[in-house]
Design goal:
The complex is a heterodimer of chains A (about 230) and B (about 600).
Chain A: E1 2-7, E2 17-22, H1 33-43, E3 62-65, E4 68-71, H2 77-80, E5 85-89, E6 96-98, E7 101-102, H3 105-113, H4 133-137, H5 156-160, H6 167-178, H7 186-193, H8 207-211, H9 218-233
Helix pairs in contact in A: 3-6, 6-9
Chain B: E1 5-14, H1 18-29, E2 34-38, E3 54-55, H2 67-77, H3 84-104, E4 118-120, E5 135-138, H4 144-159, E6 162-165, E7 167-174, E8 180-187, E9 193-203, H5 224-231, E10 236-237, E11 242-249, H6 259-262, E12 266-268, H7 276-279, H8 289-301, E13 313-316, H9 322-328, H10 330-340, E14 349-358, E15 362-363, E16 369-373, E17 379-387, E18 392-393, H11 405-426, H12 436-450, H13 458-472, E19 476-477, H14 479-496, H15 510-534, E20 543-544, H16 552-555, E21 557-562, E22 567-572
Parallel strand pairs in B: 1-2, 1-9, 2-6, 9-17, 15-18, 19-20
Antiparallel strand pairs in B: 3-5, 4-5, 7-8, 8-9, 10-21, 11-14, 12-13, 13-14, 16-17, 21-22
Helix pairs in contact in B: 1-4, 1-11, 2-3, 3-11, 5-15, 9-10, 13-14, 13-15, 14-15
The chains are: A alpha+beta (about 230), B alpha/beta (about 600).
Chain lengths: ~230, ~600
């Protein structure tokens, strides 16, 4: 198999380049892309990429594989390889630090902007705050986000306005707190999103839904925020 | 050394998992100038992989539940070498720590009355006289660790904690009095090495499951805190005690929660027999993890394993129905399809006991202060050094941890360490600065690696180490094979001390980090192997073919590994809880 991998070391390279490497997959097995990277790194220790849990829950190894964002650890070769070739690039739209490692500051900044924590200024009870199973079910499909940035870096609106558009991941989290029956800051949260960019730069392209490795639907969550903003305005 | 930049804080927490972030939160809320130093962005820490839940007597599933029952289960689960004062503290303070998590926003699953949902887990009873299965594990579906870790990160953002994300702690810095005064760390992005100066240093670096070839642990679980403390001369306690989780996915090693069996799943052999009924007639599939793991291996060794090579057994879940599986165990369905190509709704998951958890670690008191047990049965406090979570051995897990107790350990003792440090700082704790020579000592290992012109290959040595530990120090052990393993480790040690770093660049150099991590794995593996060979009995997770019985006369105690001379001593177990009578050792059956 031919692996073409994006290489860039700021200390030695004037510009990024694609490195083509032929590798034999041990036993011809259907291994994960992350396993391929491990094989490459055994031969060339200078190859840089992030990884941690290797089971699709930590969100470290988001990257672009044959044109589609995903997690290397849960993407099997059979899912992505075309004509015995695999092209691996860093997530698009963010500055590259080295090889497949991108600078995620802008992504995290947007996450922090939506105040991703529960706000409830009423005194806490001595036990848990009660929440019905139905209220809790409102958080399903939202809290599972792993902050891998696959969605946000697949979004053309984020590419254009990474500083002003919160992006699909951040908005999914914004709605996660708007939807939480234990949170009392709905009005303040909506007020902070109520500008032409934060939410309304979403044009429903749905790349986010297409690439989310956890099967989440940021577009739907964004739709719900829009409705809340419109309802509040009327 | 004058080119070494210094960052100064009151306290630093090394590690951004559950324990580290709970400690950091406590410290940030107390107003101390605190930084959390973490080699990965916090939500990439291994706590994220915890699935089934956090065990705690919050009396939701059973309004009459009692933390003393939880305490009893934990003492019994530990095979009686868990410290009863620490277990008492964890189980009694637990509910408060769990409710705090709810107040921070943790999206727990709920009961019809709106309370936190609790599921049955292994080793849970309703007290010493009532072996009825309890349901005491608070859950957020089967993603409790993920929910907990993200919630703690969010709470820290709210509290304004300083994070040094993607910074790698290399070694501890000790002053002339032997007090710990911070650490040497590398900013991974730029490669800059700095001295992070602090009056209190909390190790919250997690476990080191990567010493084994087959593990549920993340790739980052390389025992960095253990490596740092052992190199600094801090003894390690109960390092022979490693938990093998009954259900790692065969081949891949990824975890399948005990919650599967809590929800009604069970293990079968190749004949379709529910074999745990033979090994643990009462608790069956929900016996202690050590008991279940050994039973599985015995089934496999007796030729009743599943698959073409008969090298695993099956976890059967399909009888629970699609609705239960998708609502209670959605993450497992996902993992199983990805890594076992099996949809649990239709077919069983191939599973095998897989290294999961380090019960041993840095001995601490309840406030997280690191202790140096001496050879006469006493101990001294190591000034400035704290530990909490998996790297610590407080010890609430003893020889075998109960499922769901690791997440409780994290939040209870992360919190306790923060409280203890705040108290000391308020009392005016002061230490002498590190001298240039002190810093030079802490830089020695990194300097050697950076100057290496030849030596051993990191990936090759790592593989050799992991294979050796897997083969000679696994679920069943015996003296003769451990001797062989020890001889091999001595040889691997020479290579690990002499690694070659071929890529000496600065920007995000993961080769350098992997070399430093390997040396930490080496320290942990060596401590494990030496302690395992010395403990001549079977207790909890430590099972020997040549000493098959528990030996309370000689070994109802902690082991203490001394890194200076690589010897092993003993330390008394605490049998003096403050508010309840101690639970005396009994024969442990499920």
């Amino acid at each position: 198999m031919l692996v073409s991998v994006y290489r860039y070391n700021p200390e030695t390279d004037d510009a990024p380049y694609m490195q083509d490497i032929h590798i034999d997959i041990p036993g011809g097995k259907d291994i994960m892309v992350l396993d391929v990277l491990h094989l490459l790194k055994e031969k060339d220790t200078s190859l840089g990429y992030r990884r941690s849990c290797r089971e699709g829950v930590c969100g470290s190894d988001g990257m672009n594989m044959n044109g589609k964002n995903g997690l290397a650890c849960i993407t099997a070769l059979s899912q992505v390889v075309v004509d015995d070739k695999l092209v691996i690039r860093p997530l698009p739209g963010l500055p590259v630090i080295r090889d497949l490692v991108v600078d995620m500051s802008q992504f995290y900044k947007q996450y922090e902007k939506i105040k991703p924590f529960l706000i409830n200024d009423t005194p806490a009870p001595t036990m848990e705050r009660l929440q019905s199973p139905e209220e809790r079910a409102e958080l399903d499909g939202l809290y599972e986000c792993i902050l891998c940035a696959c969605c946000t870096t697949a979004c053309p609106s984020f590419w254009w306005n990474p500083d002003k558009f919160v992006g699909p991941s951040g908005l999914l989290q914004a709605y996660r707190f708007l939807a939480d029956s234990r949170d009392t800051a709905t009005r303040e949260r909506l007020a902070e999103l109520d500008d032409p960019f934060s939410v309304f730069r979403c044009h429903g392209i749905m790349n986010c839904v297409n690439v989310c490795p956890k099967g989440l639907n940021p577009t739907k969550a964004i739709g719900k925020i829009r409705n809340m903003l419109i309802q509040q305005a009327t | 050394m004058n080119e070494l930049r210094t960052l100064t804080f009151d306290a630093i927490v090394v590690g951004g998992g559950g324990a580290g972030m709970r400690a950091a939160l406590q410290l940030a809320q107390s107003g101390l100038d605190t930084a959390c130093v973490t080699k990965v962005f916090p939500t990439r820490s291994h706590t994220v992989s915890a699935q089934g839940g956090i065990t705690c007597a919050i009396a939701s599933a059973d309004p009459n539940d009692d933390w003393r029952w939880h305490m009893y289960d934990t003492v019994k689960g530990s095979d009686y070498i868990g410290d009863q004062d620490a277990i008492e503290y964890m189980c009694s303070v637990g509910p408060q720590a769990v409710f705090e998590l709810d107040h921070m926003g943790l999206p727990f699953s709920r009961t019809e009355t709106g309370r936190i949902y609790q599921r049955p887990f292994g080793g849970q009873s309703k007290g010493p006289d009532n072996p009825t299965q309890a349901a005491r594990t608070c859950a957020a579906a089967d993603r409790t660790g993920h929910a907990l870790l993200h919630t703690l990160y969010q709470a820290n953002l709210k509290a304004g904690t300083t994070f040094l994300n993607e910074w790698y702690a290399v070694d501890l810095v000790k002053n002339e009095d032997g007090a710990v005064v911070g650490c040497i760390a590398i900013c991974i992005e730029t490669g800059e090495t700095v001295y992070i100066k602090a009056k209190a240093t909390v190790l919250a670096t997690g476990g080191a499951g990567r010493i084994f070839a087959s593990t549920t642990n993340a790739l980052i679980n390389t025992g960095d805190g253990m490596g740092m403390s052992l190199r600094a001369g801090v003894p390690a306690q109960d390092m022979e005690m490693w938990q093998f989780h009954p259900t790692g996915i065969a081949g891949a090693g990824t975890l399948v929660t005990e919650g599967c069996r809590g929800e009604g799943g069970y293990l079968i052999n190749k004949d379709g027999e529910r074999f745990m009924e033979r090994y643990a007639p009462n608790a069956k599939d929900l016996a202690g993890r050590d008991v279940v793991a050994r039973s599985m291996i015995l089934e496999i060794l007796d030729g009743r394993g599943c698959g073409p090579d008969g090298d695993h057994v099956y976890l059967k879940l399909d009888h629970l129905g699609e609705e239960v599986l998708h609502s209670r165990l959605p993450g497992i369905c996902e993992l199983s399809k990805t890594f076992a190509h099996a949809d649990p709704v239709k077919e069983p998951i191939p599973v095998v006991p897989t290294c999961h958890y380090q019960m041993g670690g840095v001995a601490t008191n309840i406030g997280g202060q690191a202790l140096a047990p001496d050879k006469d049965g006493g101990h001294t406090v190591i000034e400035g050094l704290f530990a909490c979570g998996e790297v610590a051995c407080v010890s609430v897990h003893g020889a075998n941890r109960l499922g769901g107790n690791s997440l409780l350990d994290l939040v209870v003792f992360g919190r306790a360490a923060g409280i203890q440090i705040e108290k000391q700082m308020r009392e005016g704790y002061e230490v002498k600065d590190a001298s240039a020579a002190d810093l030079e000592r802490a830089m020695a290992r990194l300097n050697r690696l950076n100057g290496s012109t030849e030596g051993a290959d990191v990936a090759a040595v790592r593989k050799e180490l992991q294979a050796t530990m897997q083969l000679y120090f696994g679920v069943f052990r015996d003296g003769e094979s451990m001797q062989k393993g020890l001889a091999l480790l001595a040889d691997i040690r020479k290579k690990a001390d002499n690694l070659y770093l071929d890529d000496k660049s600065n920007a995000f150099n993961t080769a350098r980090i992997e070399a430093l991590e390997l040396q930490n794995l080496m320290e942990v593996a060596e401590a494990t192997a030496i302690a395992a060979e010395v403990r001549t009995e079977s207790r909890g997770a430590h099972a020997r073919n040549d000493f098959t019985e528990r030996d309370d006369e000689n070994w109802l105690c902690h082991s203490v590994y001394y890194p200076q001379d690589k010897t092993v001593g003993k330390r008394a177990v605490n049998f003096a809880p403050k508010t309840v009578p101690a639970f005396p050792p009994k024969v442990r059956t499920y």
